[in-house]
Amino acid sequence: MKELANLSIILKELRVSHKYTQKYVAERIGVKYQSYQAYELGITIPTLINFIKLSDLYEVSLDSLIGRDNI
What we know:
mainly alpha
């Protein structure tokens, strides 16, 4: 899944550009802080529902979120 290769970078860039903390994002999408941190570290990937929540939070398409489209 080459599209997901940059997911951790994209998540961090979006979070920083919105001036959100990892804890804030985790609370907004309903996961533990450590779970969200693992997304940004590239250890795990979000579930589909969490991809949708992240897409909604950052107001970007799912394609943009996974790097298939320019943000």
